[in-house]
Amino acid sequence: MSTATTTDGRLFALSDAAALLAADSVDTPCFAYRIDLARERFLDLRAALPRRVNLAYAVKSNPGPPLLAELARWGAWFDCASAGEVAAVGTARHAVGAHPAGPSAVPGRMVFAGPAKSEADLRAALAAGARIQVDGIEDVQRLAAWHHGPEPLAINVRVHPLEGVSETASIIGGSGPSAFGVDEEELPQFVGACAEYPTVRLSGLQVFSASNELDAAALLANHRTALGIGERLQSLLGHDLDLIDLGGGLGIPYADDSPELDIRALGAGLAELLAANAWFTGEVVLEPGRWLSGPTGVYLTRVVRVKRSRGTTFAILQGGINHLLRPLMTGQSFPVRSVPDRRGLTVTDSGSEDGAAGELTAYTLAGPLCTSLDRIGTAELGPLEPGDLLMFGQAGAYGFTQAMTNFLSHPVPEQLWLDGSSA
């Protein structure tokens, strides 16, 4: 598991002072998120991309109602993967419908995906007017039976590329064997099978092959592959595609030495790719999740005890993988720092002016669960004592809802939604 220590303020949505206020306002552990930062990031990304590119927020990264409502207020599309996510988006859109602060959120403007869609999932997506991204002929068969509109139901097919895609860390799976989509080499047979269902019209494509990618050039190479698959699909169909979903994968740094994704390079590269693929005149979708939500949140937890065991120093915390599961799943920790109390008695990892300088200790960060798997990283921090507050950054994505919260029945952490005035 990677070391999590950081001195980089860009990785934390809250200042130390704001973190202390948040930790004092509710019981710890807790999550705190900045809605203003989500809004800022959405508008910055929107401005960096060509006008044809629609931003569909990946709800799975953080389905918090205030976050969904804010993005709906500004006209976001949404990428949903369950009937529950569809319902959450519908609630958020309803909540802001009477008081829009930007482009109105209208029905539709949603894509729906998933490798094992239930009947409830598909019916919810149909009712919401989502563009459904089918993973196989089984999806097509059910949609054909349930759709009774005057026009054929437009759908996308998710295609799993044979080659030409890369992923820094295997989360989506690159071009290896996959449970997702139709393998590219089987696309002709799939198109032929779809023709047997005239109430459904295959009109679009999804290709999603990477996760948390920080290199704009790597993302663009994957998008170039996707557009090549799209051109082949359009030729097989004999009619124009109206939508290509290039997936997500826009990454964020989790360590001091990791770069930020250059969204302006990504936007310029997408513009060049679209210009070079004049055969496609439809709309494009990107599915950013982590990039929008991750930097908006922090996780705050206190030290319960410190223990040294056979050469390892443990800081045993109030929360662990029951709140932050990602480090165990991916081997990559969230950035962490200790927060000095108001007297400046806690030494921070950065040796900042808020705390006295001191030697750093390598801590293994353990949680409260009855399993040795409950580890959420390692970090070099100043001396820790029971009651000291730790702040984990970039925790606005794949944190609270991804974790195994109910294991051992510990209290569910509070989630605070802030608007930046005290951050």
UniProtKB/TrEMBL annotation:
Orn/DAP/Arg decarboxylase 2 C-terminal domain residues: 295-396
Modified residues (N6-(pyridoxal phosphate)lysine): K60
Any GO BP: lysine biosynthetic process via diaminopimelate
Organism field: Ornithinimicrobium ciconiae
Domain Orn/DAP/Arg decarboxylase 2 N-terminal: 39-293
GO MF annotation, one: diaminopimelate decarboxylase activity
Catalytic residue positions: C370
Entry-linked Gene3D superfamilies: Alanine racemase (3.20.20.10), Lyase, Ornithine Decarboxylase, Chain A, domain 1 (2.40.37.10)
Keywords carried by this UniProt record: Decarboxylase, Lyase, Pyridoxal phosphate
PANTHER family cross-referenced by the UniProt entry: DIAMINOPIMELATE DECARBOXYLASE, GROUP IV DECARBOXYLASE
Protein name: Diaminopimelate decarboxylase
Cofactor(s) demanded: pyridoxal 5'-phosphate
SUPFAM superfamilies documented for this protein: Alanine racemase C-terminal domain-like (SSF50621), PLP-binding barrel (SSF51419)
Similarity comment: Belongs to the Orn/Lys/Arg decarboxylase class-II family.
Lineage: superkingdom: Bacteria
